[in-house]
Amino acid sequence: MENKKEMRNWLDALNLDHPLVIAGPCSAETEEQVLKIAHELKDTDVSYFRAGIWKPRTRPGMFEGVGALGLKWLQKVKAETGMKICTEVANAAHVKLALEHDVDLLWIGARSTVSPFIMQEIADALEGTDKPVLIKNPVNPDLSLWLGGIERIYKSGVKNIGAIHRGFSTYQKTKYRNIPEWQLAIEFQNRFPDIPLINDPSHITGNREMIFDVSQTALDLNFDGLMIETHYDPENAWSDAAQQVTPSTLVQIMKNLKIRKETN
Ligand code: PEP
Ligand code: MN
Question: Strand 133-136 to strand 105-108: parallel, antiparallel, or no bridges (unpaired)?
Fold first, then answer.
């Protein structure tokens, strides 16, 4: 796969004068929860409202998402707030349903990017869509596996592409939930300068206190945007409670971040 300018058309078309912001809860829990968060994010810098409806949990027995029902809630978000909507897809059936319900952007999670078979299945289901597709890094720090996944999606005719850096699993005790390994993201940027690179400080940190600092590092490295999990009652969220921020904290974070502008 070669670097191609067209890969960033979807982002350039938004004409933003600030980094792209994708925000919303880790998981869609109830219709009320989704709509309340969406209304609180409505008049902010958020371009895409996120909510996971199929949740890939590491261990069984945890909340695995509301499923296709959540697509109707996301459609309501779009109708009531005008925000674009996005969700994670992890197999061909998810892709079909998301496209049928006019989801504006789809992302592929870290536990899917590790599997070439599932990436090929998703790529085949996405064939030729003009919706942007963002590919998270795999859970392990393997740049080739990440690029291979992106390549499969691109080869199936998806031209609007992006990548999400969400950090990497480690057995070591660190302050991060998933260590950032920034050098890997920098190598990604060097090889594919036109693939928009979005940082996900929520899954890197696992801790809302560190979201600002990781976001600032990403912007200092010229990342194109941020995906930040946002919930009106983070402590009682059904998944990833420790890392979500409230909509007003998100606005504060965005206000305080120093945005580095491209000079070329
Ligand atoms: C998510 O974005 O909610 C998610 C499950 O993330 P990841 O695939 O990065 O673990
Ligand atoms: Mn999450």
Answer: parallel
- In CATH, what number does 5-256 get? 3.20.20.70
Residues of the chain below pLDDT 70: 260-264
The 10s digit of each residue's pLDDT in 85-125 is 999 999 999 999 999 999 999 999 999 999 999 999 999 99
CA dihedral (118, 88, 29, 227) in degrees, to 10, reads 140
Residue from 36, 30, 92, 182 nearest 106 by CA: 92
How many angstroms does the Cα of residue 26 sit away from the middle of ligand 2?
4
Residue whose C-alpha is closest to residue 199's, from 217, 183, 176: 217
Residues 181 and 162: beta-carbon distance below 8 Å: no
Ligand nearest to the CA of 202: 2
- Is the ipTM higher than 0.95? The answer is yes
Task: Using the mean position of ligand 1's atoms as its centre, give its distance from the Cα of residue 55 in Å.
Answer: 8
The domain spans of the chain are 5-256
Mean pLDDT over each residue of the chain, to the nearest integer: 97
Nearest ligand 1 atom to alpha carbon 166: 9
